[in-house]
Amino acid sequence: MAEDRAAVREFFTERAARWEARFPDDGPAYAAAVAELGLSPGASVLDAGCGTGRALPALREAVGSEGTVLGADLTPAMLEEAVGNGRDRDAALLMADVSQLPLRDGLLDAVFGAGLISHLPGPGSGLRELARVVRSEGQLALFHPVGRAALAERHGRQITPDDVRAEPVLRPLLAAAGWRLVSYVDEDDRYLALAVREPQES
Question: What is the number of other CB atoms lying within 10 angstroms of the CB of residue 11?
Answer without folding.
Answer: 12
